[in-house]
Amino acid sequence: QVQLVESGGGLVQAGGSLRLSCAASGRTFSMGWFRQAPGKEREFVASMRWSTGTINYADSVKGRFTISRDNAKNTVYLQMNNLKSEDTAIYYCAARTSALSPDFGAWGQGTQVTVSS
């Protein structure tokens, strides 16, 4: 069973930057980031698919966030620049663990990102 371990969250002022990391323990087919703000539903942030190299971003983060991958470390990153107060949320890493299913079958524990205005 694939396990995901996230790191890199914290407190930052508006306009600042943070980089989140997510290390996977097994084979994955794509990975992504989601976030959940207080009182809101979990929402998609970004994803990367290994086979095609396809990258997708939520409109709210386009031009500010960048997802990338280190194959050797089996780790995916989320570089977050020009952070805004509305980016405050718990960020979750997720991975597709089956080539036969589009679902994200593995999830990390979440890491808190707080942006102060």
Helical residue percent band: under 10%
Spatial shape: globular
Return Rg in Å. Answer: 13 Å
Unreliable sequence segments: none
Overall mean pLDDT stands at 95
Order of helices and strands: EEEEEEEEEEE
Strand content: over 45%
Output the structural class: mainly beta
The count of β-strands is 11
Largest sheet: 7 strands, mixed
First and last CA, distance: 40 Å
Contiguous helical run count: 0
SSE blueprint and pairings:
Layout: E1 4-7, E2 10-13, E3 18-24, E4 30-36, E5 43-49, E6 55-57, E7 65-70, E8 75-80, E9 89-96, E10 106-107, E11 111-116
Parallel strand pairs: 2-11
Antiparallel strand pairs: 1-3, 3-8, 4-5, 4-9, 5-6, 7-8, 9-10, 9-11
Mind explaining what this structure looks like?
By secondary structure, this protein is mainly β. It is 0% helix and 51% strand. The chain is built from no helices and eleven strands. The chain has strands at residues 4-7, 10-13, 18-24, 30-36, 43-49, 55-57, 65-70, 75-80, 89-96, 106-107, 111-116. Strands 2, 4, 5, 6, 9, 10 and 11 form a seven-stranded mixed sheet that branches. Strands 1-3-8-7 form a four-stranded antiparallel sheet, with no helix packed on it. It is globular. It starts with a strand and ends with a strand.
